[in-house]
Amino acid sequence: MRIISSSDPHRAAEDFWKRLKGQLTESQTDNGKGLQIKFPDGSTAVFRPFTSTFNSPAITLDVATPGLGIATYQRIHFTK
Fold it and tell me: The pTM is what?
């Protein structure tokens, strides 16, 4: 898990999500608690504005392409 500290965690998470999403189309997650996007290589990202951690929105990345030199699964929490 990664932590990004900000004076406004929700704004920071929304900013990060908008940049990550780019022109991709987002849809609701199956449970209705977040938004998701799918990248052309099959990787996915999920934005959850509210999590079980108080005032800590999260973005989860599941990278489908191996060998990029990055972890294939990342969870990023935004906190104060």
Answer: 0.89
